[in-house]
Fold:
Amino acid sequence: MAQIRHALNVKRADDFAAWYQEVISAAEMAEESGVRGCMVIRPWGFGIWERMQRLLDDRIKATGHENAYFPIFIPLSNFAREAEHVEGFAKEMAVVTHHRLIAGKDGGLMPDPEAKLEEPLVVRPTSETIIGDAMARWVQSWRDLPLKLNQWANVVRWEMRTRMFLRTSEFLWQEGHTAHADAEEAKAHTLTMLEVYRAFADEDLSLAVIAGEKPENERFPGAVETWSIEAMMQDGKALQAGTSHYLGTNFSKASGIKYQDREGGETLAHTTSWGVSTRMVGGVIMTHGDDDGLRLPPRIAPQQVVILPMLRDGPEDAPLLAYCEELRAALAAQAALGEKVRVLLDSRPGKAAAKRWDWVRKGAPAIVEVGGRDMDNGVVSLLRRDRLWDEASGKPAFQTPSRDEATAAIPGILEDMQAVLLDEARARRDANITREVADFAEVERHFTASRYPGWLEVQWSRPTGAALDQVVERLKAHKLTIRNVPQDASPADGACLFTGEPAVERILLAKAY
Amino acid sequence: MAQIRHALNVKRADDFAAWYQEVISAAEMAEESGVRGCMVIRPWGFGIWERMQRLLDDRIKATGHENAYFPIFIPLSNFAREAEHVEGFAKEMAVVTHHRLIAGKDGGLMPDPEAKLEEPLVVRPTSETIIGDAMARWVQSWRDLPLKLNQWANVVRWEMRTRMFLRTSEFLWQEGHTAHADAEEAKAHTLTMLEVYRAFADEDLSLAVIAGEKPENERFPGAVETWSIEAMMQDGKALQAGTSHYLGTNFSKASGIKYQDREGGETLAHTTSWGVSTRMVGGVIMTHGDDDGLRLPPRIAPQQVVILPMLRDGPEDAPLLAYCEELRAALAAQAALGEKVRVLLDSRPGKAAAKRWDWVRKGAPAIVEVGGRDMDNGVVSLLRRDRLWDEASGKPAFQTPSRDEATAAIPGILEDMQAVLLDEARARRDANITREVADFAEVERHFTASRYPGWLEVQWSRPTGAALDQVVERLKAHKLTIRNVPQDASPADGACLFTGEPAVERILLAKAY
Structure:
């Protein structure tokens, strides 16, 4: 086997964190903005987020939700209403205290002391309390329920340590908020949205997530139940990729979301909330990226096929461009994965080989190069991003179908690649979950034995209160957390790893982002 | 002619401002949030904005722009860079000064004095300076130009007097930002985007706008040229519905957007910016609304057809719902205006007549009622929102086509309505622009003679500096402003209304929102 010269400088196996940063930079997805904790999402990164938005928005609407928009500013007093919520959120937030600037002494600008707000405003870290206010106005009778809302918005949580996409002070997300007549319906809806997230993550993003309930200590501040989808990154860490909360009547009490029931009595509504954010983009990078850059599941690729004519800045370029344009039009008229194929003819200045590697690093699923000789022979040079290298020669694994064959084959290639990436992610995940752990010493050994140790599935007795705190502390000493109780795990049949008592369920232990 | 009982309490002719508020409330488009100057955009209002976004986004992408996302927070020092920009914007803005809350003495929360930011952050009122920073990093060579970006975002300008959609402290918009190699290309692009806005306003929103250049005194802070589209509201006032700015090298100087040209020299880029916001929704209301509520151009209606079965809460409901569902499916399979027909079967509890008037107030283009007798006769009762009343009887002008006839006719009806609303808006606008004004006294008379006086088109000599200030002051005394110099106005052929000198062009005078 020949030596392969990969397109990135850092390999996953050598330094996963540095590799992650290099993918983001080499694929021109995002960069530091110079504003503390905030990133700039560049067109390629934002195009991926737009695709995610479109696909998830369709799923959210298909389950009966409507989009709306609520203020970015939340009065300070709103946060004080729900005790646990304030405890969990009211710490690191951006606080607006003034509404005017004036010239300062040094020729610069400063907040005008005359324009101090009577009540400071918080830039929303999440919108339960402000949407709760609206729900209290809109919900009057049982006929108004269920009320199913969603919002696409930016939110701010002042983070001390930030990492692009995974943890930034400002991020983009959707937050769903619903009100229901009773606990049963609200709990069922919490699980409906968890399933929407699971299907979105697996089918659209090829992530192979595990859905399950979070333990008590990991609940959203103010929630009665928190459910999550967890994805395994290639370094074996877990990424919480989406959460769905059953909030009971905690927020409806705080905001006064009451309705007249069919019997004429006044009843508190039960609410849910659920969100997915731009951190999902980070999850896609760390699940599918390789030592040549990003690999994108075709459903979320802003461009699925990139055509690169080998231009020579001469008169021979015109027929070559025409040949490529015919290919572009023929591909764009086809459908793959239920949508029109997204195809770009990249005729910008620059050498075709350099542009090829740019598109490899960006993760375009299919790259089609066309030179003058290809045109003369009626063929194209086709490269699949998921089968980039010919191992024997150490060179890119180009195929050379005829132009018509390529046109006919590409939709199927995109559909195959979508499935291949999910299969790979699922196989890697399953190979890296270790079960049958005898005692805590083995947990310690497992997480120190290798660099990227994956997850453990263990049995426990679901301790609460102080007993749970003890478990959490023991895990914390090894930088471990309980990810969730997988919905489809086997029933418990042994002893609790922590207490020795009979186990009641299985949980996942992992290091996490 | 019989008396018509309209669906709203306030008529446009009686109190236009109160009518506007009633439409917004009766159509459930938006409401006050309780947070100063910020509104809640309810699902129907947000659905209209989503339709606008989709249509405008397609047009922006078709002209070669890519979407990206930049931080909501802008360091104070950024504003000080461009002198005119700071003068125009650095006044009423939301200023973030702290990043943490702590418990206050009264049990409430307060900004933590320990967590005061070294440099306050401003919530973006517009993003020229922060996007300029990124452009300076991305533009290195002539090969990087033109750079064509767009952002969909929320922005905040602290407004003292707010009115829903028209002027709110937080609003939603898109802001396009481009960099070009020279003035000629940048100026041409400014006009390309003006034309995108004009086409969007006319073809998608049926607004019949007038595109033209703003006078010097109405330029965006820091711009060399500002162009606008102006729409006439039914009270004769103007609404600036979109602006496109040629910024020269003012912002590229401030941010350092320089490139190496083909000859190897270092050159400043020329930039443009352009934006359209949620105020467009207010423009649609005040252009198309009538005394029964909103009327929506079908292209931007979240639902174009609403089917209302006359349910009786009995066993006869099942076949009726099945009959309506067949109609819904048949309509949804058809296309109108280049997209699938958006049709809603509204089977929520409630009387059909009450629901009909709700949908009339919301401006759904076509309403189809189906009762048991209609079903037995194979017909439906069809109401066009733009031909609501039978003047003779004073009753709703229902047609009763067969179900198949209705299915076949509705796409054509939607296309017709889109054109009818534009024709109406254009005819009203043209009928309310008065030309041939002899002197300023006539201007005064015109704007005091009637309640909704429309616009004047007058000739002027394009004074600048102090002479222009004088004109602006004279107009201001009558609450008038110069809207723009229409692109397609006739050439000047007379004397300046203000100076008596030979006129050089024609301008529009109006009261404005």
Notes: Residues 403-431 of chain A form the longest helix (29 residues). The first strand of chain A starts at residue 30 and ends at 32.
